[in-house]
UniProtKB/TrEMBL annotation:
Residues 1-19 form the signal peptide. It comes from Reyranella soli. Keywords: Signal. This is DUF2155 domain-containing protein. The keyword Signal applies. Pfam families: DUF2155 (PF09923). InterPro entries: DUF2155.
């Protein structure tokens, strides 16, 4: 009896990951320690890490908040990026929308939700070729975000 209930709950959680709702003010955990990155010079960006499972290569890249960034066939949009207050343990949380734009096919929305840097498996992208995870939220100095490493 417990197994079907767990499966129903998991199916419900998986369905909410691709819901069409706008990003909430705070992640579902409602952590009162989370806040916007303090204002400063540059742009707010999320540092992400992508894994191409076919080539087994990882790439770190910066995705400016409010703009779309490409990783392979994926278009990644960061709607918000939050960090913990200095007194709390370090944490970065980003609201990502990930769309797969395969050539010759219609765009497919794969993920829309909060990703936590400290627990990437809590809310992960489920894709056969790519993995994407949040590393941190920061301010990119200068007029353009730092280049990919």
């Amino acid at each position: 009896m417990r197994v079907p209930l767990i499966l129903v709950l998991l199916a419900g959680l998986a369905g909410t990951a691709v819901a069409q709702t706008p990003p909430p003010q705070q992640p579902a955990s409602a952590n009162v320690n989370l806040r916007q990155i303090p204002d400063g010079p540059g742009k707010r960006v999320a540092e992400l890490q992508g894994l191409d499972k076919v080539t087994a290569r990882t790439q770190r890249f910066y995705a400016p908040v409010g703009e779309s960034t490409r990783f392979g066939t994926l278009a990644i949009t960061v709607s918000d990026c939050l960090v913990n207050v200095p007194e709390a343990p370090p944490e970065s949380v980003a609201y990502l929308t990930i769309v797969d734009n395969k050539p010759g096919q219609a765009a497919e929305k794969l993920f829309a939700g909060w990703m936590f840097a400290s627990t990437p498996s809590l809310s992960a992208l489920d894709h056969g070729v790519y993995d994407v995870r949040v590393l941190s939220c920061t301010m990119a100095q200068g007029s353009s975000p730092p280049s990919s490493r």
